[in-house]
Amino acid sequence: MRLLVTGGAGFIGSNFVRYILENYPDYEVINLDALTYAGDISNLEGVMDHPSHRFVQGRIEDGELVYELVRQVDVVVNFAAESHVDRSIVQPQVFVQTNVVGTQVLLNAALESGVKLFCQISTDEVYGALSLDSTETFTEESPLRPNSPYSASKTAADLLARAYFTTYRLPVVISRCSNNYGPRQHPEKFIPTVILNALHDRPVPIYGDGLYVRDWIHVVDHCRAIDTIMHRGNPGEIYNVGADNEWANIELARKILSILRKPEDLLTSVKDRPGHDRRYAISSTKLRRELGWEPLTPFDQGLAATIDYYIHRARARDEG
Ligand code: NAD
Fold first, then answer.
1. Is the shortest distance between the CB of 186 and ligand 1 below 6 Å?
2. Which atom, in ligand 1's list, is nearest to the CA of 150?
3. Is the CB of 11 under 6 A from ligand 1?
4. Geometric angle at alpha carbon 198, from 197 and 200, rounded to 5°
5. Has this prediction a pTM greater than 0.90?
6. Mutation to probe ligand 1, out of 14, 35, 36 (largest number of atoms < 8 A from CB)
7. Average pLDDT over residues 139-167
8. Which of 110, 172, 235, 297 could covalently link to 218 via disulfide, CB atoms 3.0 to 4.6 Å apart?
9. What residues contact residue 133 under an 8 Å CB cut-off, 6+ apart?
10. What letter does residue 282 receive in the DSSP assignment?
11. Residue 168 exposure: Cα atoms within 13 Å on the Cβ side
């Protein structure tokens, strides 16, 4: 099988490229990434020159390039996105450009060249927020109520993908995953920020009261879910991906500090993000029951390995 993976120099995309090359020796991967501030070629260390991997630097909004690449593959997996909520509040137009326009360009190229499958990597943030006292979890049928320019642009992309299935019968599957953690995440994101600041004895910023609850899944479990959906999912279907592993930010930061044996007084409350979603929680029962997927990484183990990864990375950078 030949895949076009977009955003494959970012956090999840680079883990997915590695996962595919390790698990499917006969697959070929074209990796299209613009290398924005969030993309890092060093995320591909060790696989960059793999004979089944070809890296192309370019943007998903570039119709000519995208068409040229899409016609060489069977499956498109679209990770490429602007992904940081805080940045979307300052520069929403960049998010619309990449996440909405870029996805539409890819969908069109996929339709024109008749790919076998288009996997849209969406997010649980399309559902909006739950209150702290609610016991509800979002299912694939829940209404879409995105609150940030990031999640609104991802919702538009998700709905465009759905519309290409309904209108043109392009075989599309959509995954909506909860918060990922693991190696190669950009240092601006929550878990790397906590680890790296604590390691350097710098204040660890916590938004507002810290009672923002997220469901954390290891990135490799997300990659396995995409693998499952890509091979066994039904076109036109949406699959939630989650680990039932909810943590309030402040509790998770405390846990990381305790693993690193750092004092809790590093925690520093900072001005809250406007429109900050209180709680995300999704049900991945459909994916578990229909396709037999389940997350396999125990949180303590995955978190410890992630902390080790950032310790080694920080040491290598200090030395180099
Ligand atoms: P990331 O920011 O680490 O990586 C995004 C990658 O896309 C980068 O390598 C960047 O260079 C590339 N890119 C940005 N604009 C591009 C463009 N116009 N053309 C081509 N490449 C471009 O993001 P991530 O955390 O790895 O997320 C990947 C995908 O998964 C996103 O679509 C995101 O919405 C989705 N997602 C992320 C999470 C999470 O917790 N990180 C959870 C659910 C869904």
1. yes
2. 34
3. yes
4. 65
5. yes
6. 36
7. 98
8. 297
9. none
10. B
11. 19
- For 26-37, write each residue's pLDDT tens digit: 999 999 999 999
Tokens of 196: 């790296």
For the annotated catalytic residues, the residue numbers are: 124-125, 150
**Alpha carbons 187 and 214: distance in angstroms, whole number:** 18
| HSE-up (13 A, CA, CB side) for residue 83 | 25
Q: Which two tokens stand for residue 305?
A: 């390995």
Residue 119 has φ and ψ, to the nearest 5°, of -100, 115
Instruction: Determine the Cα–Cα distance for residues 202 and 205; give it in Å rounded to an integer.
Output: 9
For residue 295 and ligand 1, the question of a CB distance below 6 A is answered with no
Whether 320 has a pLDDT exceeding 90, the answer reads no
Asked if residues 148 and 127 have their Cβ atoms less than 8 Å apart, the reply is no
Amino acid at 194: V
Task: Give the whole-angstrom CA distance, residue 223 versus residue 266.
Answer: 33
Query: What's the chain's length in residues?
Result: 320
Residue type, 259: I
